[in-house]
């Protein structure tokens, strides 16, 4: 079995503008289908905003956790 | 001799070069320090004027000055296109074949709107993020007789408040010309009207009072220039009579040619030291970085203070320990001759301020004072 590649980290801690979701959209725009991103955010709202957009845009939410005050949301680009 | 080379003579590059020239004047005169700015064109352009050009409130001559006149006399200026950066040789290769050696390189190449990334956009949409586009939009607005103006915003893009400013200003522009029945539809990529929450809340209160419609979660996928429709990757389609679009931006081709950027041409940069990741002698500032902060002139301005302090300190034998705190400050034109502003950094979210005519006047004054900023004085 092939190991899953490491997710591409989008370090958006302390980002108020453009903010974690816009940073994820930027990544999704420029990387190929199948890429897994892990967004790091210091904003609690990201745990809700990112999954909401991911669902609408037809991508896949892989993981959504809080570790030491950092919200980590993994998303796979599906199309 | 320590050679400091700047790739890009916009606000960031010019500010740092000028601050170095002033503070290291004796070293430059003794031949111990050499400062060179490489700029694509002989002109320095103040880009915030593009928004005003679209409404015929500014003309190109007001936004241009010779880069030579912006730079301190002790800064050398090379006008030309850089082909690539050769990190091993510590040289910038110019397209005319010359090679410019550096001990420190400051990359301040900015970003560029890339309408070609969205099918149909260049044919169907207007773009005020370039001078040529702003003038074309000015003419299209002058010929506009009613219907629906749609504003779209793609990611990433510079000057994050300009789409909102344009929307408020175009509503005023229409009303003043008796086109109260014309529609204005503002769209935004995420689930609120602006990435900054206080700004989004303010816009959501103001829009209904100014008869501005809005649609969120709208990331432009394609434009049908023939049928005047724009479709989002979320699957929605809206029709327009005049489309004003902020295209996705990318880094400059020289960054890609040099293998320094990510897939979008943004350079991985340490958020505190502003050193290129993995480098000890290449600083990056302004739009060229991959940092998750606003691509705006003010960002470059505050970063420039950090880069010049560290360069001067290191040239004098220090370690260059000043850290960038993520500071950004932006004016927001609110229409009706009022404006507001926001400021924030990595640790402190923005606090909204009520718009006032005084802040609008200060913004207009700053448009004139900008040249002092570029000179590294203000």
Written overview of the protein:
The complex is a heterodimer of chains A (79) and B (378). Chain A has 79 residues and is of the alpha+beta class. Chain A has one domain: TusA-like domain (Translation Initiation Factor IF3). In chain A, 29% of the residues lie in helices and 32% in strands. Chain A has two helices and four strands, in the order E-H-E-H-E-E. In chain A, strands 1-2-4-3 form a four-stranded mixed beta sheet, with helices on one face. In chain A, strand 3 and strand 4 form a beta hairpin. Chain A is globular. The mean pLDDT of chain A is 92. Chain B is of the alpha/beta class and 378 residues long. Chain B folds into two domains: 183 residues, FAD/NAD(P)-binding domain (3-Layer(bba) Sandwich), CATH 3.50.50.60; 135 residues, FAD/NAD(P)-binding domain. Helix content of chain B is 31%, strand content 25%. Chain B has twelve helices and 21 strands. Chain B has a five-stranded parallel beta sheet with strand order 5-2-1-9-19. A four-stranded parallel beta sheet of chain B has the order 13-12-11-17. In chain B, strands 6-7-8 form a three-stranded antiparallel beta sheet. In chain B, strand 12, helix 9 and strand 13 form a beta-alpha-beta unit. In chain B, helix 1 runs parallel beside helix 11. The mean pLDDT of chain B is 96. Chains A and B meet through helix 1 and helix 2 of A and loops of B.
Largest interface: A-B, 25 and 31 residues
Oligomer: heterodimer
User: CATH H-level name of the largest domain in chain B... which superfamily?
Assistant: FAD/NAD(P)-binding domain
Total domain modules of chain B: 2
Total DSSP E strands of chain B: 21
Could you give the order of strands across the largest sheet of chain A? 1-2-4-3
Strand content of chain A: 25-35%
**What is the correct CATH architecture of the largest domain in chain B?**
3-Layer(bba) Sandwich
The total count of helices of chain B amounts to 12
What is the CATH domain class of chain A? Alpha Beta
Approximately how much helix is present in the residues of chain A? 25-40%
What is the CATH first-level class name of the largest domain in chain B?
Alpha Beta
As a whole number of angstroms, the C-alpha radius of gyration of chain A is 12 Å
Which consecutive residue ranges of chain B, at least 5 long each, have pLDDT under 50? none
